[in-house]
Protein backbone atom coordinates (compact mmCIF):
# COMPACT_ATOMS: atom_id res chain seq x y z
CA UNK A 1 0.00 0.00 0.00
CA UNK A 2 2.83 2.42 0.87
CA UNK A 3 4.53 1.72 -2.45
CA UNK A 4 1.31 2.38 -4.37
CA UNK A 5 0.36 5.63 -2.64
CA UNK A 6 3.74 7.20 -1.91
CA UNK A 7 6.37 5.92 -4.30
CA UNK A 8 4.16 5.21 -7.33
CA UNK A 9 1.95 8.29 -6.79
CA UNK A 10 -1.18 6.12 -7.10
CA UNK A 11 -4.54 7.77 -6.39
CA UNK A 12 -6.31 4.57 -5.38
CA UNK A 13 -5.61 0.88 -4.76
CA UNK A 14 -7.91 -2.03 -5.67
CA UNK A 15 -9.31 -4.31 -2.96
CA UNK A 16 -9.37 -7.96 -4.11
CA UNK A 17 -10.97 -10.89 -2.32
CA UNK A 18 -10.66 -14.46 -3.63
CA UNK A 19 -9.40 -13.14 -6.93
CA UNK A 20 -12.39 -10.81 -7.39
CA UNK A 21 -12.40 -7.00 -7.36
CA UNK A 22 -14.65 -5.99 -4.47
CA UNK A 23 -13.75 -2.30 -4.07
CA UNK A 24 -11.05 0.32 -3.89
CA UNK A 25 -9.22 2.36 -1.28
CA UNK A 26 -8.44 5.95 -2.28
CA UNK A 27 -5.76 8.26 -0.93
CA UNK A 28 -8.58 10.26 0.67
CA UNK A 29 -9.87 7.16 2.47
CA UNK A 30 -6.41 6.53 3.87
CA UNK A 31 -5.95 10.10 5.07
CA UNK A 32 -9.40 10.12 6.69
CA UNK A 33 -8.53 6.90 8.50
CA UNK A 34 -5.24 8.33 9.68
CA UNK A 35 -6.94 11.51 10.87
CA UNK A 36 -9.69 9.70 12.74
CA UNK A 37 -7.27 7.24 14.35
CA UNK A 38 -4.53 9.74 15.20
CA UNK A 39 -3.78 9.75 18.88
CA UNK A 40 -5.21 6.29 19.60
CA UNK A 41 -2.96 4.18 21.78
CA UNK A 42 -0.40 2.22 19.75
CA UNK A 43 -0.24 -1.53 19.79
CA UNK A 44 2.40 -3.18 21.88
CA UNK A 45 5.84 -2.50 20.46
CA UNK A 46 4.69 0.43 18.28
CA UNK A 47 5.68 4.07 18.81
CA UNK A 48 3.08 6.82 18.61
CA UNK A 49 3.70 10.11 16.83
CA UNK A 50 1.25 11.91 19.11
CA UNK A 51 1.59 12.33 22.86
CA UNK A 52 -1.25 12.65 25.34
CA UNK A 53 -1.18 13.59 28.98
CA UNK A 54 0.81 16.44 30.42
CA UNK A 55 -0.69 19.75 31.48
CA UNK A 56 -4.44 20.24 31.05
CA UNK A 57 -5.73 23.81 31.05
CA UNK A 58 -9.19 24.52 32.41
CA UNK A 59 -11.44 27.06 30.69
CA UNK A 60 -10.99 29.46 33.63
CA UNK A 61 -7.21 29.29 33.20
CA UNK A 62 -7.46 30.06 29.48
CA UNK A 63 -9.81 32.97 30.24
CA UNK A 64 -7.20 34.34 32.65
CA UNK A 65 -4.44 33.99 30.01
CA UNK A 66 -6.59 35.88 27.52
CA UNK A 67 -7.17 38.70 30.03
CA UNK A 68 -3.53 38.92 31.11
CA UNK A 69 -1.67 38.34 27.84
CA UNK A 70 -3.80 39.88 25.09
CA UNK A 71 -4.60 43.53 24.32
CA UNK A 72 -8.09 44.67 25.28
CA UNK A 73 -9.03 45.09 21.63
CA UNK A 74 -8.23 41.42 20.90
CA UNK A 75 -10.13 40.28 23.97
CA UNK A 76 -13.20 42.20 22.76
CA UNK A 77 -12.91 40.83 19.22
CA UNK A 78 -12.76 37.23 20.46
CA UNK A 79 -15.87 37.81 22.56
CA UNK A 80 -17.69 39.42 19.61
CA UNK A 81 -16.78 36.51 17.32
CA UNK A 82 -18.20 34.10 19.88
CA UNK A 83 -21.44 36.08 20.22
CA UNK A 84 -22.04 36.18 16.45
CA UNK A 85 -21.48 32.42 16.31
CA UNK A 86 -23.95 31.95 19.16
CA UNK A 87 -26.55 34.04 17.36
CA UNK A 88 -26.10 31.89 14.23
CA UNK A 89 -26.14 28.67 16.30
CA UNK A 90 -22.62 27.79 15.15
CA UNK A 91 -19.53 26.64 17.03
CA UNK A 92 -16.49 28.85 16.55
CA UNK A 93 -12.87 28.39 17.64
CA UNK A 94 -9.62 30.31 17.53
CA UNK A 95 -6.94 27.83 16.46
CA UNK A 96 -3.34 27.19 15.53
CA UNK A 97 -0.30 29.32 16.23
CA UNK A 98 -2.29 31.98 18.06
CA UNK A 99 -3.30 29.42 20.70
CA UNK A 100 0.17 27.87 20.84
CA UNK A 101 1.82 31.23 21.45
CA UNK A 102 -0.83 32.28 23.98
CA UNK A 103 0.09 29.24 26.08
CA UNK A 104 3.81 29.96 25.61
CA UNK A 105 3.40 33.68 26.41
CA UNK A 106 4.74 34.75 23.02
CA UNK A 107 3.27 37.70 21.15
CA UNK A 108 1.15 36.60 18.19
CA UNK A 109 -1.88 38.54 16.97
CA UNK A 110 -2.40 36.51 13.78
CA UNK A 111 -5.90 35.25 14.51
CA UNK A 112 -7.19 32.16 12.68
CA UNK A 113 -10.85 31.32 13.26
CA UNK A 114 -12.48 27.99 12.40
CA UNK A 115 -16.27 27.69 12.16
CA UNK A 116 -18.17 24.40 12.30
CA UNK A 117 -20.50 25.31 9.46
CA UNK A 118 -20.45 28.00 6.80
CA UNK A 119 -17.43 30.20 7.54
CA UNK A 120 -18.23 32.63 4.73
CA UNK A 121 -21.76 33.25 6.01
CA UNK A 122 -20.36 33.71 9.53
CA UNK A 123 -17.81 36.27 8.29
CA UNK A 124 -20.45 38.19 6.37
CA UNK A 125 -22.71 38.28 9.44
CA UNK A 126 -19.85 39.53 11.63
CA UNK A 127 -18.95 42.24 9.10
CA UNK A 128 -22.54 43.49 9.04
CA UNK A 129 -22.49 43.97 12.80
CA UNK A 130 -19.01 45.43 13.11
CA UNK A 131 -16.93 48.12 11.48
CA UNK A 132 -15.01 45.96 8.99
CA UNK A 133 -14.98 44.67 5.43
CA UNK A 134 -15.02 41.05 4.35
CA UNK A 135 -13.22 39.36 1.47
CA UNK A 136 -14.67 35.94 0.66
CA UNK A 137 -13.32 32.87 -1.12
CA UNK A 138 -16.40 30.73 -1.59
CA UNK A 139 -14.55 27.87 -3.31
CA UNK A 140 -12.52 27.15 -0.19
CA UNK A 141 -15.09 28.27 2.40
CA UNK A 142 -12.74 30.96 3.71
CA UNK A 143 -12.92 34.71 4.30
CA UNK A 144 -10.84 37.55 5.68
CA UNK A 145 -12.21 40.25 7.97
CA UNK A 146 -10.43 43.55 7.28
CA UNK A 147 -10.71 46.41 9.77
CA UNK A 148 -10.20 50.12 9.16
CA UNK A 149 -6.56 49.99 10.31
CA UNK A 150 -5.91 46.96 8.03
CA UNK A 151 -5.91 44.52 10.94
CA UNK A 152 -7.10 41.16 9.58
CA UNK A 153 -8.74 38.03 10.95
CA UNK A 154 -8.81 34.84 8.87
CA UNK A 155 -12.06 32.85 8.91
CA UNK A 156 -12.38 29.27 7.61
CA UNK A 157 -15.05 26.62 7.54
CA UNK A 158 -13.90 23.51 9.35
CA UNK A 159 -12.63 21.35 6.54
CA UNK A 160 -10.72 18.27 5.53
CA UNK A 161 -7.95 18.69 2.98
CA UNK A 162 -6.54 15.88 0.91
CA UNK A 163 -3.80 15.82 -1.67
CA UNK A 164 -4.06 13.99 -4.99
CA UNK A 165 -0.26 13.92 -5.26
CA UNK A 166 2.72 15.03 -3.15
CA UNK A 167 3.37 18.75 -3.37
CA UNK A 168 0.01 19.56 -4.98
CA UNK A 169 -2.44 22.09 -3.61
CA UNK A 170 -5.16 20.38 -1.56
CA UNK A 171 -8.75 19.57 -2.44
CA UNK A 172 -11.21 20.60 0.28
CA UNK A 173 -14.29 19.09 1.97
CA UNK A 174 -16.34 20.41 4.92
CA UNK A 175 -15.76 18.56 8.18
CA UNK A 176 -15.83 18.82 11.99
CA UNK A 177 -13.29 20.86 13.94
CA UNK A 178 -11.55 17.61 14.91
CA UNK A 179 -11.07 16.71 11.26
CA UNK A 180 -10.00 20.27 10.53
CA UNK A 181 -7.34 20.14 13.23
CA UNK A 182 -6.16 16.76 11.97
CA UNK A 183 -4.89 18.35 8.75
CA UNK A 184 -2.56 20.69 10.62
CA UNK A 185 1.17 20.32 10.28
CA UNK A 186 2.25 19.65 13.89
CA UNK A 187 0.58 18.72 17.15
CA UNK A 188 1.53 22.04 18.75
CA UNK A 189 -0.61 23.78 16.11
CA UNK A 190 -3.70 21.61 16.66
CA UNK A 191 -4.99 23.40 19.75
CA UNK A 192 -8.33 25.22 19.59
CA UNK A 193 -10.12 27.51 22.05
CA UNK A 194 -13.90 27.76 21.99
CA UNK A 195 -15.25 31.32 21.68
CA UNK A 196 -18.95 30.60 22.17
CA UNK A 197 -20.16 32.45 25.29
CA UNK A 198 -21.37 29.36 27.13
CA UNK A 199 -18.06 27.56 26.54
CA UNK A 200 -15.63 30.46 26.23
CA UNK A 201 -12.03 29.44 26.93
CA UNK A 202 -12.53 25.68 26.70
CA UNK A 203 -9.34 24.24 25.18
CA UNK A 204 -9.68 21.43 22.66
CA UNK A 205 -6.62 19.19 22.43
CA UNK A 206 -7.27 16.01 20.46
CA UNK A 207 -3.65 15.34 19.52
CA UNK A 208 -1.47 16.05 22.55
CA UNK A 209 -0.42 19.57 21.65
CA UNK A 210 -0.24 20.75 25.28
CA UNK A 211 2.15 18.00 26.26
CA UNK A 212 4.38 18.57 23.24
CA UNK A 213 4.54 22.28 24.09
CA UNK A 214 5.56 21.39 27.65
CA UNK A 215 8.18 18.92 26.39
CA UNK A 216 9.31 21.29 23.60
CA UNK A 217 8.94 18.58 20.98
CA UNK A 218 7.76 18.99 17.40
CA UNK A 219 5.70 16.09 16.07
CA UNK A 220 3.64 15.50 12.94
CA UNK A 221 0.23 13.88 13.25
CA UNK A 222 0.61 10.91 10.92
CA UNK A 223 3.15 9.03 8.82
CA UNK A 224 2.11 10.60 5.51
CA UNK A 225 2.36 14.20 6.73
CA UNK A 226 5.51 15.07 4.78
CA UNK A 227 4.27 13.07 1.80
CA UNK A 228 1.03 14.98 1.43
CA UNK A 229 2.85 18.32 1.89
CA UNK A 230 6.67 18.23 1.60
CA UNK A 231 6.93 21.95 2.47
CA UNK A 232 6.25 20.90 6.07
CA UNK A 233 9.94 19.98 6.13
CA UNK A 234 10.78 23.71 6.03
CA UNK A 235 8.11 24.55 8.60
CA UNK A 236 9.42 21.85 10.95
CA UNK A 237 12.87 23.39 10.93
CA UNK A 238 11.52 26.94 11.17
CA UNK A 239 9.38 26.16 14.25
CA UNK A 240 12.12 24.07 15.82
CA UNK A 241 14.63 26.93 15.65
CA UNK A 242 12.21 29.76 16.41
CA UNK A 243 10.63 28.10 19.44
CA UNK A 244 13.74 26.34 20.73
CA UNK A 245 12.05 22.96 20.30
CA UNK A 246 13.44 19.63 19.06
CA UNK A 247 11.98 17.64 16.17
CA UNK A 248 10.75 14.32 17.57
CA UNK A 249 12.74 11.20 16.70
CA UNK A 250 9.99 9.55 14.65
CA UNK A 251 9.09 12.85 12.97
CA UNK A 252 12.72 13.40 11.98
CA UNK A 253 12.82 9.87 10.56
CA UNK A 254 9.76 10.65 8.43
CA UNK A 255 11.32 13.95 7.38
CA UNK A 256 14.52 12.23 6.27
CA UNK A 257 12.49 9.66 4.34
CA UNK A 258 10.63 12.43 2.50
CA UNK A 259 13.95 14.05 1.57
CA UNK A 260 15.41 10.76 0.33
CA UNK A 261 12.31 10.15 -1.79
CA UNK A 262 12.94 13.49 -3.52
CA UNK A 263 9.43 14.74 -2.77
CA UNK A 264 10.64 18.35 -2.81
CA UNK A 265 10.99 18.05 -6.58
CA UNK A 266 7.21 17.79 -6.82
CA UNK A 267 6.66 21.12 -5.04
CA UNK A 268 6.11 24.21 -7.17
CA UNK A 269 8.84 26.82 -7.22
CA UNK A 270 6.48 29.42 -5.83
CA UNK A 271 5.76 27.35 -2.71
CA UNK A 272 9.45 26.57 -2.20
CA UNK A 273 10.26 30.27 -2.45
CA UNK A 274 7.52 31.12 0.07
CA UNK A 275 9.04 28.74 2.63
CA UNK A 276 12.56 30.05 2.05
CA UNK A 277 11.26 33.61 2.38
CA UNK A 278 9.69 32.82 5.78
CA UNK A 279 12.90 31.24 7.06
CA UNK A 280 15.13 34.08 5.84
CA UNK A 281 12.68 36.57 7.37
CA UNK A 282 13.22 35.10 10.84
CA UNK A 283 15.13 37.39 13.24
CA UNK A 284 17.97 34.81 13.23
CA UNK A 285 17.78 32.74 10.05
CA UNK A 286 21.24 31.13 10.28
CA UNK A 287 20.31 28.26 12.68
CA UNK A 288 17.41 27.20 10.44
CA UNK A 289 19.53 27.39 7.27
CA UNK A 290 22.31 25.36 8.90
CA UNK A 291 19.80 22.77 10.10
CA UNK A 292 18.27 22.49 6.62
CA UNK A 293 21.76 21.94 5.23
CA UNK A 294 22.50 19.16 7.74
CA UNK A 295 19.18 17.49 6.88
CA UNK A 296 20.21 17.61 3.18
CA UNK A 297 17.14 19.70 2.37
CA UNK A 298 19.01 22.55 0.71
CA UNK A 299 20.41 20.19 -1.90
CA UNK A 300 16.81 19.67 -3.02
CA UNK A 301 16.84 23.37 -3.97
CA UNK A 302 20.26 23.24 -5.63
CA UNK A 303 22.90 20.48 -5.50
CA UNK A 304 25.66 22.93 -4.53
CA UNK A 305 23.90 24.04 -1.34
CA UNK A 306 25.37 21.32 0.87
CA UNK A 307 26.20 20.89 4.53
CA UNK A 308 29.90 21.32 3.67
CA UNK A 309 29.37 25.08 3.34
CA UNK A 310 29.92 27.15 6.48
CA UNK A 311 27.18 29.77 6.24
CA UNK A 312 27.97 31.38 9.60
CA UNK A 313 30.55 33.96 8.48
CA UNK A 314 28.54 35.21 5.48
CA UNK A 315 25.32 35.40 7.49
CA UNK A 316 27.09 37.28 10.29
CA UNK A 317 28.47 39.80 7.77
CA UNK A 318 25.02 40.21 6.20
CA UNK A 319 23.51 40.80 9.63
CA UNK A 320 26.14 43.42 10.48
CA UNK A 321 25.69 45.32 7.22
CA UNK A 322 21.88 45.29 7.43
CA UNK A 323 22.01 46.39 11.09
CA UNK A 324 24.31 49.24 10.04
CA UNK A 325 21.93 50.24 7.25
CA UNK A 326 18.91 50.18 9.56
CA UNK A 327 20.66 52.63 11.89
CA UNK A 328 21.14 55.11 9.04
CA UNK A 329 17.39 55.79 8.79
CA UNK A 330 17.77 56.69 5.12
CA UNK A 331 14.07 56.36 4.39
CA UNK A 332 14.84 53.90 1.60
CA UNK A 333 13.59 50.39 2.45
CA UNK A 334 15.80 47.34 2.49
CA UNK A 335 14.53 43.75 2.32
CA UNK A 336 16.83 42.13 4.85
CA UNK A 337 15.74 38.60 3.90
CA UNK A 338 16.97 39.15 0.34
CA UNK A 339 20.42 40.15 1.61
CA UNK A 340 20.51 36.80 3.41
CA UNK A 341 19.32 35.06 0.25
CA UNK A 342 22.18 36.64 -1.72
CA UNK A 343 24.89 35.49 0.72
CA UNK A 344 23.16 32.11 1.10
CA UNK A 345 23.44 31.48 -2.66
CA UNK A 346 26.82 33.17 -3.17
CA UNK A 347 28.48 29.83 -4.05
CA UNK A 348 26.44 29.59 -7.25
CA UNK A 349 27.83 30.86 -10.55
CA UNK A 350 25.84 32.91 -13.03
CA UNK A 351 24.28 29.97 -14.88
CA UNK A 352 23.42 28.22 -11.63
CA UNK A 353 21.83 31.32 -10.11
CA UNK A 354 19.76 31.80 -13.28
CA UNK A 355 18.58 28.20 -13.03
CA UNK A 356 17.69 28.69 -9.36
CA UNK A 357 15.71 31.86 -10.12
CA UNK A 358 13.71 29.92 -12.72
CA UNK A 359 13.17 26.99 -10.31
CA UNK A 360 11.83 29.29 -7.60
CA UNK A 361 9.62 31.19 -10.09
CA UNK A 362 10.90 34.53 -8.84
CA UNK A 363 9.06 37.70 -9.80
CA UNK A 364 10.94 39.94 -12.31
CA UNK A 365 12.29 42.32 -9.66
CA UNK A 366 14.06 39.59 -7.68
CA UNK A 367 15.07 37.75 -10.84
CA UNK A 368 16.74 40.91 -12.16
CA UNK A 369 18.65 41.44 -8.92
CA UNK A 370 19.80 37.82 -8.90
CA UNK A 371 20.82 37.72 -12.56
CA UNK A 372 21.85 41.12 -13.95
CA UNK A 373 22.58 43.16 -10.82
CA UNK A 374 24.39 40.37 -8.97
CA UNK A 375 26.66 39.72 -11.95
CA UNK A 376 27.37 43.45 -12.31
CA UNK A 377 28.12 43.78 -8.59
CA UNK A 378 30.52 40.84 -8.55
CA UNK A 379 32.34 42.30 -11.56
CA UNK A 380 32.70 45.66 -9.80
CA UNK A 381 33.93 43.96 -6.63
CA UNK A 382 36.55 42.07 -8.57
CA UNK A 383 37.87 45.30 -10.13
CA UNK A 384 37.87 47.23 -6.86
CA UNK A 385 39.53 44.45 -4.88
CA UNK A 386 42.26 44.09 -7.50
CA UNK A 387 43.37 47.72 -7.19
CA UNK A 388 46.96 47.87 -6.08
CA UNK A 389 47.90 49.49 -2.80
CA UNK A 390 48.80 53.12 -3.37
CA UNK A 391 46.58 53.53 -6.41
CA UNK A 392 44.41 56.64 -6.44
CA UNK A 393 41.03 56.30 -4.77
CA UNK A 394 38.16 56.15 -7.29
CA UNK A 395 36.47 59.46 -7.97
CA UNK A 396 33.10 59.99 -6.33
CA UNK A 397 31.55 60.30 -9.78
CA UNK A 398 32.98 56.86 -10.69
CA UNK A 399 31.55 55.31 -7.53
CA UNK A 400 28.21 56.89 -8.36
CA UNK A 401 28.19 55.51 -11.92
CA UNK A 402 29.13 52.04 -10.75
CA UNK A 403 26.73 51.78 -7.81
CA UNK A 404 23.71 53.80 -8.96
CA UNK A 405 22.10 50.96 -11.01
CA UNK A 406 22.28 48.59 -8.03
CA UNK A 407 19.59 48.05 -5.41
CA UNK A 408 20.23 48.58 -1.72
CA UNK A 409 20.17 44.82 -1.16
CA UNK A 410 22.86 44.26 -3.78
CA UNK A 411 25.04 47.02 -2.29
CA UNK A 412 24.76 45.48 1.17
CA UNK A 413 25.55 42.07 -0.35
CA UNK A 414 28.75 43.61 -1.77
CA UNK A 415 29.68 45.00 1.64
CA UNK A 416 29.09 41.60 3.26
CA UNK A 417 30.92 39.78 0.48
CA UNK A 418 34.13 41.81 0.25
CA UNK A 419 37.10 40.98 2.44
CA UNK A 420 38.64 44.44 2.06
CA UNK A 421 37.74 47.22 4.48
CA UNK A 422 38.64 49.91 1.94
CA UNK A 423 36.12 48.57 -0.59
CA UNK A 424 33.52 48.40 2.15
CA UNK A 425 34.25 52.06 2.98
CA UNK A 426 33.74 53.11 -0.64
CA UNK A 427 30.34 51.42 -0.80
CA UNK A 428 29.44 52.96 2.56
CA UNK A 429 30.51 56.40 1.31
CA UNK A 430 28.25 56.04 -1.72
CA UNK A 431 25.23 55.04 0.40
CA UNK A 432 25.70 57.71 3.04
CA UNK A 433 26.98 60.68 1.01
CA UNK A 434 26.68 60.24 -2.74
CA UNK A 435 23.47 58.42 -3.55
CA UNK A 436 21.13 61.38 -3.00
CA UNK A 437 23.33 64.11 -4.52
CA UNK A 438 21.57 66.21 -7.19
CA UNK A 439 22.62 69.31 -9.18
CA UNK A 440 21.13 72.58 -7.97
CA UNK A 441 20.09 73.71 -11.45
CA UNK A 442 16.90 72.28 -12.96
CA UNK A 443 15.41 72.08 -16.41
CA UNK A 444 13.61 75.36 -15.76
CA UNK A 445 16.95 77.03 -15.06
CA UNK A 446 18.42 75.65 -18.29
CA UNK A 447 15.43 76.99 -20.23
CA UNK A 448 15.93 80.38 -18.61
CA UNK A 449 19.56 80.25 -19.74
CA UNK A 450 18.39 79.84 -23.32
CA UNK A 451 18.57 76.08 -23.87
CA UNK A 452 15.75 74.55 -25.89
CA UNK A 453 14.07 71.58 -24.12
CA UNK A 454 15.32 68.21 -25.39
CA UNK A 455 17.84 65.39 -24.79
CA UNK A 456 20.58 67.96 -24.13
CA UNK A 457 18.96 68.65 -20.74
CA UNK A 458 19.81 65.13 -19.54
CA UNK A 459 23.37 65.46 -20.82
CA UNK A 460 23.90 68.80 -19.07
CA UNK A 461 22.32 67.74 -15.78
CA UNK A 462 24.39 64.52 -15.70
CA UNK A 463 27.56 66.51 -16.33
CA UNK A 464 26.59 68.89 -13.53
CA UNK A 465 25.93 65.97 -11.19
CA UNK A 466 29.36 64.42 -11.81
CA UNK A 467 31.03 67.82 -11.41
CA UNK A 468 29.26 68.31 -8.06
CA UNK A 469 30.18 64.79 -6.90
CA UNK A 470 33.83 65.46 -7.61
CA UNK A 471 33.75 68.88 -5.93
CA UNK A 472 34.29 70.90 -9.10
CA UNK A 473 31.12 72.92 -8.51
CA UNK A 474 29.63 73.95 -5.17
CA UNK A 475 27.17 76.81 -5.63
CA UNK A 476 24.47 77.72 -8.13
CA UNK A 477 26.86 80.27 -9.63
CA UNK A 478 29.48 77.55 -10.07
CA UNK A 479 26.98 75.38 -11.93
CA UNK A 480 25.90 78.22 -14.23
CA UNK A 481 29.52 79.05 -15.03
CA UNK A 482 30.21 75.36 -15.69
CA UNK A 483 27.30 75.12 -18.14
CA UNK A 484 28.15 78.39 -19.93
CA UNK A 485 31.76 77.29 -20.39
CA UNK A 486 31.07 73.72 -21.55
CA UNK A 487 27.92 74.08 -23.65
CA UNK A 488 27.04 76.41 -26.49
CA UNK A 489 23.87 78.31 -25.67
CA UNK A 490 20.97 78.07 -28.11
CA UNK A 491 19.14 81.22 -28.98
Concise structural overview:
The chain is an alpha+beta fold. Helices cover 51% and strands 12% of the residues.
Describe this structure in words.
The strands form four sheets. The chain has a seven-stranded mixed β-sheet with strand order 5-6-7-4-3-10-11. A two-stranded antiparallel ribbon has the order 1-2. Strands 8-9 form a two-stranded antiparallel ribbon. Residues 34-47 have low confidence and may be disordered. It is built from 24 helices and 13 strands. It is an alpha+beta fold and 491 residues long. The termini are far apart.
Structural features:
13 strands; Hydrophobic Seed Protein; seven-stranded mixed beta sheet; Beta Polymerase, domain 2; single chain; two-stranded antiparallel ribbon; 491 residues
Topology:
Layout (H helix, E strand, L loop, with lengths): L1 H6 L4 E6 L2 E7 H11 L21 H11 L2 H16 L3 E5 L1 H8 L6 E6 L2 H11 L2 E6 L4 E6 L4 E6 L1 E4 L8 E4 L2 H6 L9 E3 L8 E2 L4 H7 L1 E2 L6 H4 L3 H12 L2 E2 L1 H12 L8 H12 L5 H9 L3 H4 L10 H17 L7 H9 L5 H10 L4 H22 L10 H8 L4 H10 L3 H14 L8 H6 L7 H14 L6 H11 L5
Parallel strand pairs: 4-7, 12-13
Antiparallel strand pairs: 1-2, 3-4, 3-10, 5-6, 6-7, 8-9, 10-11
Helix pairs in contact: 10-13, 15-16, 15-20, 16-20, 17-18, 19-21, 19-23, 20-21
Amino acid sequence: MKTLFVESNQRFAPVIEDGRLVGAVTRTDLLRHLASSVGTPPRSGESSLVNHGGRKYRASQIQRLIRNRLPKRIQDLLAQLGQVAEDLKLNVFVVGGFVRDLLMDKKNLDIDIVVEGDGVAFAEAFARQNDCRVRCHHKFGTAVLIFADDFKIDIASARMEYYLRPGALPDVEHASVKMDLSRRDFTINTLAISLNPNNFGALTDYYGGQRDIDEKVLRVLHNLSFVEDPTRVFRAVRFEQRLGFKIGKQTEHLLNSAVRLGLMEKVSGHRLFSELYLILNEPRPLPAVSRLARLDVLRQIHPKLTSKIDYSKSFDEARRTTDWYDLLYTGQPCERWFCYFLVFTAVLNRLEITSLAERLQLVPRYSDMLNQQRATALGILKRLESRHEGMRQPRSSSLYRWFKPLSTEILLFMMARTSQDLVRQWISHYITHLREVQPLLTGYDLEAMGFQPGPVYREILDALLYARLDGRVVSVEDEKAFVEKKYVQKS
